[in-house]
Design a protein that fits this description.
With 87 residues, this protein is an alpha+beta fold. It has three helices and seven strands, in the order E-H-E-H-H-E-E-E-E-E. The strands form two sheets. A five-stranded mixed beta sheet has the order 2-1-7-5-6. The radius of gyration is 12 Å and the shape is globular.
Amino acid sequence: MATIKLPAVLVGGSATSEVDVAGDTVRELFENHADEHGPELKDSVLEDGEIKEFINVYVEGTPVESVTAEVPEDAQVRVIPAASGGR
């Protein structure tokens, strides 16, 4: 299973969390996570079946832009919302 590392802002907590999820592609990971834990994360990351514009997904440190990207069995997957604002 892959491990998805999620920032607090996406999971409503005060710290980054990690969850193990099965799936061979990015889409399968988020679908399986939704089946097990509810649709909130999937809804935060995906829009119209694709990764939202201001969400960055990394598989083993490599940025991916498509939900069809392959995910190795024991991969580390990070989801990072883009930061903006400031002066």
